[in-house]
Amino acid sequence: MAEFMMKPISQNDIGERTIFNTGVSTVGKGGDDYFCGHCGRKMIHNMNLSAIEATVVYQCGGCQSYNLPPESESADETASV
Ligand SMILES: [Zn+2]
Known about the structure:
The protein has one domain. Helices cover 0% and strands 36% of the residues. It contains no helices and eight strands. The strands form two sheets. It has a four-stranded mixed β-sheet with strand order 1-5-6-4, with no helix packed on it. A four-stranded mixed β-sheet has the order 2-8-7-3, with no helix packed on it. Strand 7 and strand 8 form a beta hairpin. The chain is globular.
């Protein structure tokens, strides 16, 4: 289990992605913790976002800003694997 800071994006960067509002807190069944890249709030507890194949934007329940999981940053570069 590790802690990750989400990648902050603006509303203009959402594009075709699905928006998931984490609300007060989102708790998974095991994995990592993720923090809002805008306000630092812990958005997601014990969830493995890298296992989610859909491209999702995570909206912070605190500041209502948008974040991408850190893993998605290199998704395009590993397409040839
Ligand atoms: Zn936030």
